[in-house]
Amino acid sequence: MTNRNRKRIGVIGFLHESNTFIASPTTYQAFENDCLLERDDFYQAMSQSNHETSGFFSVLDEVKDEFESIPIILARAVPYGTITTRAYRRIIDTMLNLLDKVGPIDGLLVAPHGATVSKEYPDADGYWLGELRDFLGPNIPIIGTLDPHGNLSDLMAKSCNALIAYRSNPHLDQFEIGRQAASLLIETLKFKVRPVMEIARPPVAISIQKQETNMNPCLPLYNLADQQLDHPAVLTNSIMLGFPYSDVDEMGAAFIVVTDGNRSLAREYVDALAEYLTLHRRDFRAELEPMEETVKRCKSLIGPVCLLDMGDNTGGGGPADSTILLHECQRQGLTNTFVCLYDPAVVSQLMNLEIGSVREIKVGAKTDELHGTPWVGLVKLLGKYSGTFYEPKARHGGSTDCDQGPTVVVRHKSGITIMATSKRQPPFSLRQLTSFDIDPLKFHILITKGVNAPIAAYKPICKQIVKVNTPGVTTADIEKLNYRHRRVPLYPFEEIL
Predict the structure, then answer these.
(1) Tens digit of pLDDT for each residue in 351-393?
(2) Which of 95, 68, 42, 304 has its CA nearest to residue 189?
């Protein structure tokens, strides 16, 4: 028998990693092309994935005799430029209209990213969370998850009772963090805990190069955070590594501690985390060598070698079509190389040809003038594909059903093999290769458009994983970026002590 007195818990997700250094904006169509789901469609699509909202639903399904899951909306787009005002406002208006239509709720689970920026709403996550708080009033608990690549604002924290960031980078724990957030909300609604949250935003920006969580310099910081969890009053704590490619006031690292009613302890612990980062800030600054030297080193390394193209990090908003590293590998004779490039024009050019056809292509470097010049060569068409693939394991981003659009694979006589896609696809999965008849073990060099996201997928098969200091809109050398809105002082741009 159904319990008609079940408490009703709403579920909302709105995630976008907005790179403000990209000239092209993120439109409403970008969300339609990735994930824009309402009500039951939202639940059906995400209940079996590895996303944080999947974790929400997993817990709510386990307690359905006491709690009713109310899916409302999930809006997500592949990282890119600032969201247009029109697209952002349309999503927020839809969110509030749907929330109004579902009727009264007792609690709300939210999945913001933390690095969302809209033209008129720089603190975009803070704004929509604030809108939800105003709509629901002060007494309805709101608990959510965050991507540690987000930038935490005071308004984001003020609008929620608790926020929990993923604890791994690459992000392999999104599902579990979603479960933690849902469990905390249930405990709150049962009056078993009373979460209070304190945050700290020390004036430090962490280089994307130094954000791998199971490596130094992050590892000791996470160990300190883990030690705090031993205190019985600490419900959760989080490290926000920050997203340096959003030029907003809150850009930089941040910390969250949530306790059971003990605000002074939350303050003490969050300050301790901030103090650690401040004291060890130099360890979190980029250590970069010229791209040419890195490629030269790779000539003597046993393959496969995964070269992480940091300047064209698709998961950070990169265009996924930079040819700079490919040209350098070819110049130095590293031609047993694979690369995936976003180029819908080349896909269209080749899609109607017979397998085995030979054509000259001009591929890559078409999005802007920051990511090289097109690679030109006579290539043989090896395969044509729909571009869909399935990743069953927990991988960065939490997606399982993936779609990079119509895809072609070609090979140059030198050995260079290029996959051209018609949609930008972050390289978090080896299925992106193996689903399209690419054997990664046959290559000496695998160029991937990421920094940390690909590591979990590529580490089992690669002898070496090397981060390459390439130019681009996601350059690891953030001190070269032209910020206009960040805090001052902020290390490493200014000294802070």
Answers:
(1) 999 999 999 999 999 988 889 999 999 999 999 999 888 776 6
(2) 68
